[in-house]
Design brief:
The protein is an alpha/beta fold and 420 residues long. 25% of the residues lie in helices and 29% in strands. The protein folds into two domains: 273 residues, 3-Layer(aba) Sandwich (Aminopeptidase), CATH 3.40.630.10; 122 residues, Roll (Aminopeptidase i, Domain 2). α2 runs parallel beside α4, α4 packs across α9 and α7 crosses α9.
């Protein structure tokens, strides 16, 4: 019986609004988990190990949560996702400007389609690290920045296609006058309610401010920034909280930061973070851990490309997933997605238990697609892994689009993985 419906998408909108950066996403996921009785554990502290209950831990914008039931245990069921999104990251010395304009120096983070960020009111969010080592989240949730487009009168060839120089033409403005060193970070510190002199590090990103919302004649579409990949983080949190009959498997949510730039960090999917957590859950017993991994499975959930009605030639002709048609299993012969016959069987069993429609996604031979945490985590852990996700349009844009009923179906799929 389905446990998620369109209200799940309403809740996703709230989750997205509360999660403008990976750090906020972990905080919001943690808040929801704690409201459901989960307990946060510090990696530096002692863990209760196999004591029944829900637990989670956070590292640098990545979150891992799990539930111990106390029943006989013979393997993990892991639902994986990522918390980051392509955007513009504020440089260490942000104050710059030209021709009487104050600007903020930024660097491109991940695969950003530049044009989607032009002439858009932007906020700033992220974290500040204070001198005492503490972390403070900040979210300037109002129009602060703008990357202005050159007027068509001065760029008559703009509609013929023109690449933008990310160094010189994607620097947002935020005021008038001469830039003053330290001014921007003083402002951000004030927004966070801290002394600027106490701030000794920051991770700050541009934020698309448009509110998530429905569109279409019957509200059958849902648009928002960070559908990639907060749809999966939100689905995993909801499913882990709702999971009841997990049998002999221990359910785990693993949502990693830095997927959009390759995962090669101390908290990303290529790091030992997840492996360390799973080993600690089993009290460091390697023999038991090895046996558990051999009986475990992971579902790597990320968005994928829905067929685009204006560019059908860009898609594989025999496999044309569409937004609103349910989650996809993502298949790649070259293992850019971690899916083969065993993995497909894992996916189909979970989808059948969930009672949801589903689709295949395969890249066109002449257009290789991106990859996910699936092959990385599967290789790192030596665990059976399948790649899945929702079909969307405008991936990596400042505003993406999916079917309004698909987020709930993804949560049902996660439940189908956790429960059987």
């Amino acid at each position: 019986m389905a446990r998620f419906d369109r209200s799940h998408t309403d809740d996703l909108a709230a989750f997205i609004k509360a999660s403008p950066t990976p750090y906020h996403a972990c905080a919001e996921a943690g808040r929801r988990l704690e409201a459901a009785g989960f307990r946060r554990l510090a990696e530096t502290g002692e863990w209760p190990l196999e004591e029944p209950g829900g637990y989670y831990t956070v590292r640098d914008g990545s979150i891992i949560a799990w539930r111990v039931t106390g029943a006989d245990f013979d393997g993990f069921r892991i639902f994986g996702a990522h918390t980051d999104t392509p955007a513009f990251k504020v440089k260490p010395k942000p104050d710059t400007g030209a021709a009487g304009w104050k600007q903020v120096a930024v660097e491109v983070y991940g695969g950003v389609p530049h044009q989607t960020w032009l002439d858009r009111d932007l906020g700033v969010a992220g974290r500040l690290i204070l001198r005492d080592g503490s972390e403070v989240l900040v979210d300037v949730d109002r129009a602060l920045l703008r990357i202005p487009r050159l007027a068509i009168h001065l760029d008559r060839g703009v509609n013929e296609g023109r690449a933008l120089d990310p160094q010189g033409q994607l620097t947002p403005i935020w005021g008038l006058g001469q830039p003053r060193e330290g001014e921007f970070l003083e402002f951000i510190a004030g927004e966070a309610g801290v002394d600027p002199d106490d701030v000794i590090g920051h991770d700050l990103f541009t934020v698309a401010l448009d509110a998530p919302g429905y569109l279409g004649k019957d509200d059958e579409l849902f648009a928002a920034w960070r559908l990639d990949n907060l749809t999966s983080v939100h689905a995993g949190v909801a499913a882990l909280i709702a999971a009841e009959d997990t049998g002999s498997h221990l359910p785990v949510l693993a949502a990693f930061n830095y997927e959009e730039i390759g995962s090669m960090t101390y908290s990303g999917a290529q790091s030992p973070f997840l492996e360390s957590v799973l080993r600690r859950v089993l009290a460091g017993d390697y023999e038991r851990y090895a046996q558990a991994i051999a009986s475990s499975a992971m579902m790597s959930s990320d968005t994928g490309n829905s067929i685009h009605p204006n560019y059908p030639e860009k898609h594989e002709p025999g496999h044309r997933p569409v937004a609103g048609g349910g989650p996809m299993i993502k298949v790649s012969a070259n293992q850019r997605y971690a899916s083969g016959a065993e993995e497909e069987a894992l996916f189909r069993r979970a989808a059948e238990r969930a009672g949801i429609p589903w689709q295949y996604y395969v890249n066109r031979n002449s257009i290789p697609g991106g990859t996910t945490i699936g092959p990385i985590s599967g290789t790192r852990l030596g665990i059976l892994t399948v790649d899945v996700g929702l079909p969307i349009l405008s991936m990596h844009s400042a505003r993406e689009l999916c079917g309004a009923d698909d987020p709930a179906r993804l949560a049902e799929l996660a439940l189908g993985l956790f429960e059987h």
